[in-house]
Design brief:
Elements (H helix, E strand, L loop, with lengths): L16 H6 L15 E5 L3 H12 L3 E5 L10 E2 L9 E2 L5 E2 L3 H10 L3 E3 L10 E6 L2 E6 L6 H18 L1 H10 L2 H15 L4 H6 L2 H4 L3 H10 L14 H9 L6 E4 L4 H9 L14 H4 L8 E6 L8 E5 L3 E4 L1 E4 L11 E2 L6 H9 L2 E2 L1 E8 L18 E4 L5 E5 L7 E9 H5 L6 H15 L9 E9 L10 E2 L6 H8 L14 E3 L11 H18 L15 H4 L19
Parallel strand pairs: 1-2, 1-13, 7-17, 10-14, 13-22
Antiparallel strand pairs: 3-4, 5-9, 6-9, 7-8, 10-11, 11-12, 15-21, 16-19, 16-20, 17-18, 18-19
Length: about 575
């Protein structure tokens, strides 16, 4: 039995955020003379709200800016009607190992349930359809041996070069020295390696016919097929599997937006400076400020450090935390070049955002639980296929209650191919495709209202669903993740700090939004003369001990070039 990590200890920076959050002494404090100091927070997604909440608890006054709606990519969509189920258009799967995330989910007061992933016990049945062949599995009925052979090959290729079991054991034991030792050996070797190349060059897969890798790409591990990520860096994938991100996932009842709504209205029991009953909502009069149009250095040399302009007014702040997609700092927001080093600008402009598309329909009831009298099987199942739908998920909200079908959840190239089609056109293609898999099921007869869809690369204020590095991007990610430490080290950052999941090592997981928000909060506290208690050091206090691996870089670009004739 493999050890199960109890928390996400990211190999690059294995700071125990869950212990930090749970400690009775709190996250730290600022001098009373700074109470009420305004700190700008750009973005009201999960990272922005976590940072703002913790700043407020310290006695500072966060001022949140948001171009859209509160929640960011924890966005829900519903059909008109009080009882309509909520379709999670963004984040919808949350691993139990995301302990920092669940700390805030608990504060928000949301409920959760197991996520119905393929072949998971939360899915009554699963259909895998490859190459025109269908395979059915339920809780007591396994797929044919071929699929287990594929899974075994994946586990073997992790073990042969990535010390899979040893890293999982080290994470479970919180053995920081071993985590750092293993990872420090892997980063220089694998930084330039893609997921696809890692598989193809492994002993486990290279000795098998190509169809094993092909099937693995369609079925993947945990939440479904992963061939859409084959071009991405294997380091990103290793982080996911080490920390059990793809297993033991839960969904938020009533929609993930309930977390950000709950944090917005949450009234902490312990706060400095602010009266009992204060919330982020009350500090903002119920509404955050609007879209930021520019960020620049303030005229003074130190304090206030940053000037933020929205459509109405410019305001000066001692510090600012930027949680929006960093691509926006080069496009929709006029940001002074002096705010960041050339190397950091390079990193922000090279971020690879993964495209993502989802299409949902509301149905009158969870009809897929019906049993086919001829076969004894469920009439419809969670579905993985090599057809255009790729992954279809079923969400049961109770007997005879309206339910949801995610007709298709696709990423990367597969997502881009849906972009020219509107919601109804997408649904028509998807229903026709599912009709070929389930010819005896009239899905359309159960549909209520219009389909709901999103393509995150086409959404205003977003450049895709989430960051996931390409091979060779480790240095870029390190520049962004460690930016919060520059103030403490006398470096470039003076009063402006980056947070959000595109700064995080954990691509695509809400945990990364939370942990980078805590990093930035520590930086603001440190800048204003605050500190953590000795018994509960923060991420900046342990940075030297746990800092990410440094890969060599040239000291400067060449001063001249010779162009061959």
């Amino acid at each position: 039995m493999k050890p199960q990590p109890v928390t996400m200890l990211t190999p690059d920076f294995p700071f125990p955020y869950d212990e930090y959050l749970q400690h009775p002494s709190g996250l730290g404090s600022v001098p009373p003379s700074t109470h009420g100091t305004e700190v700008a927070v750009i973005g009201a997604g999960l990272a922005g709200l976590v940072a703002a909440l913790e700043l407020m608890k310290m006695g500072l006054r966060p001022v949140i800016y948001e171009s859209g709606t509160i929640g960011g990519r924890l966005r829900g969509a519903t059909l008109p009607g009080a009882d309509a189920p909520v379709a999670d258009m963004g984040g919808m799967r949350f691993p139990v190992s995301s302990r920092a995330f669940w700390h805030y989910a608990d504060l928000a007061g949301v409920g959760s349930a197991p996520f119905p992933n393929p072949l998971d016990s939360a899915s009554p049945s699963t259909v895998v359809e490859l190459g025109g062949q269908q395979f059915y599995a339920s809780a007591n009925e396994a797929l044919p041996p071929f699929f287990q052979e594929v899974a075994d090959a994946w586990e073997q290729c992790l073990e042969e070069r990535a010390e899979y079991a040893a890293m999982q054991q080290a994470i479970a034991d919180r053995d920081y020295a071993t985590i750092k030792r293993i990872w420090a050996g892997l980063v220089p070797v694998l930084d330039d390696t893609s997921f696809s190349n890692y598989l193809a060059s492994s002993k486990a897969f290279s000795g098998l016919p190509y169809q094993y890798r092909e099937a693995f790409g369609q079925i993947g591990f945990g939440s479904g097929g992963w061939d859409v990520s084959f071009p991405n860096a294997i380091l990103e994938i290793l982080r996911v599997v080490y920390m059990e991100c793809e297993n033991n996932q839960r969904r938020i009842l009533g929609g993930a937006r309930g977390i950000t709504d709950g944090l917005w209205s949450h009234t902490p029991e312990k706060m400095e400076y602010w009266p009992e009953g204060t919330s982020l909502a009350s500090l903002h009069g119920g509404m955050p400020r609007g879209a930021v149009t520019s960020i620049r250095r303030a005229a003074g040399p130190t304090d206030p450090a940053v000037t933020i302009t929205d459509a109405e007014v410019s305001r000066e702040y001692a510090a600012a935390i930027v949680t929006c997609h960093k691509w926006l700092l080069s496009t929709e927001i006029q940001a002074d070049e002096s705010l960041f080093s050339p190397e950091q600008w390079m990193a922000m402009r090279r971020i690879h955002y993964l495209q993502s598309s989802k299409t949902f329909v509301v149905v009158d009831r969870p009809f897929w639980l019906d049993t086919d009298p001829d076969t004894g099987r469920r009439v419809m199942s969670t579905t993985l296929t090599d057809r255009v739908t790729r992954g279809t998920y079923l969400f049961d909200n109770g007997p005879d209650q309206q339910a949801l079908i995610c007709l298709s959840y696709t990423w990367n190239d597969d997502a881009l191919k849906w972009l020219p089609l509107n919601a109804q056109q997408r649904a028509d293609v998807m229903l026709r495709t599912l009709g070929e898999i389930y010819p005896d099921v009239d899905i359309r007869s159960h549909i209520v209202g219009e389909p709901l869809t999103v393509s995150w690369e086409d959404e205003p204020g977003f450049a895709g669903a989430f960051k996931i590095n390409l091979p060779g991007h480790y240095r870029y990610q390190r520049r962004l993740y460690t930016q919060f430490m520059e103030h403490a080290q006398g470096g470039q950052a003076q009063g402006i700090y980056l947070a959000g999941d595109d700064v995080s090592w954990t691509a695509g997981w809400a945990e990364g939004a939370v942990t980078t928000a805590l990093n930035a909060t520590w930086a603001v506290m440190d800048q204003l003369g605050g500190h953590c208690t000795p018994e509960n050091p923060g991420p900046g206090d342990r940075f030297t001990e746990l800092a990410p691996v440094v890969l060599p870089e040239a000291s400067a670009l060449p001063t001249s070039f010779t162009i061959p004739v």
